[in-house]
Amino acid sequence: MQLTNVTVKEAFAACVNNKNIILDVRTVAQYVQGAATGAVCMEFSDLNELALTKLSKEINYYIMCQRGKVSVQAISQLRKLGFNNLYHIDAGYDEWLKQKLPTEIPTETPKANTHDLRYLRHHQLPGFGRIAQNKLQKAHILQIGAGGLGSSCGLYLAAAGVGQITIIDDDVVQLSNLQRQIIHTTDSINTLKVASAKQQLLSLNPEITINAIAARLDKNNVDKLVENADIIIDGSDNLSTRYMVNDSCIKYHKPLVYAALYQYEAQISVFNLQQPDAPCLRCLFPQTKGFEPDNCSTAGVLGVVPGLAGIMQASEAIKLITKVGEVLTGKLLICDLLDNSFRTIKYAKANSCPKH
């Protein structure tokens, strides 16, 4: 294929004229960090879809990529679409920078690619990328509680792009919650926690769906909610609810991400009940009739402790969805913020467990 090659300086001089435009065919991840001033940015992979509607065959296009290789393919593709006034910029954007020619951060692109920009750092992450991000987008998480654990967990799941999050909680926001429940604000006091949480999460990421259920989780609704979700986040604050959720997750083979708090300490684990040999909550903590440990409202808690634990729950959920990394199945992570100790205790499925 015959090319009309130009240097970056020749392209810069030519594109002072409005009938000559630099067309940057690099990826979003590349051009959002900077592009030639005045360039039109359109990913090579989008040319077939966008070129005929967004570009003009009357204009001379100077095609740029990062180093001058993808731009050759772009010219070939554009010629097939009927574009003939094309010039190839040798050495690409790397050479543009080397010659200290003017650059800018693009504010507009032919395709409103806000989705890619939002998750750009995930796309760049080795071993994660678009494949893992797409899995998050298709996932449905049930989050039990919109309190201390649910605050940080919900915020990071929403930010990560989990496509659907269902939150159930029947409580209202109180002033004493705000020391640790960072999803709520002073203006949220006396409003339903699920309504406050939904507003905050959609403000953070309007691309996702939030189902807010202002109800108490009980034996009448737990099975339906668990069955319809991919992963369950336990943000409850009492053992009776935890055991009920655990038993439903066993019934429907759903992964359960567990966290519990006590003053300066957090515990996190994953009961990956999709696996037949995975231990459950009852294996870790056999139920003792009538026993109910102190919760935050009676024992107190350092405000950052539920924040840390909730973030860890979000991390475990993301790993479960994407299959990236190792999760805490059969392991109890104990974090003590008084002495900055982090230790892991291994445990196994108990033969005496009454549920599986």
UniProtKB/TrEMBL annotation:
Q: Which Gene3D superfamilies match?
A: NAD(P)-binding Rossmann-like Domain, Rhodanese-like domain
Q: List the EC numbers from the record.
A: 2.7.7.80
Q: Which GO terms describe its molecular function?
A: ATP binding; molybdopterin-synthase adenylyltransferase activity; sulfotransferase activity; thiosulfate-cyanide sulfurtransferase activity; ubiquitin-like modifier activating enzyme activity
The reply on keyword Nucleotide-binding is yes
Q: Which residues cross the membrane?
A: none
Among Pfam families, the record links this protein to: Rhodanese, ThiF
Residue intervals of the Rhodanese domain: 21-105
Annotated InterPro entries: Rhodanese-like_dom (IPR001763), Rhodanese-like_dom_sf (IPR036873), ThiF/MoeB/HesA (IPR045886), ThiF_NAD_FAD-bd (IPR000594), Ubiquitin-activating_enz (IPR035985)
The EC class name is transferase
Keywords carried by this UniProt record: ATP-binding, Nucleotide-binding, Nucleotidyltransferase, Transferase
NCBIfam families annotated for this entry?
PRK05690.1
User: What is this protein's name?
Assistant: Molybdopterin-synthase adenylyltransferase
Q: Which species is this UniProt entry from?
A: hydrothermal vent metagenome
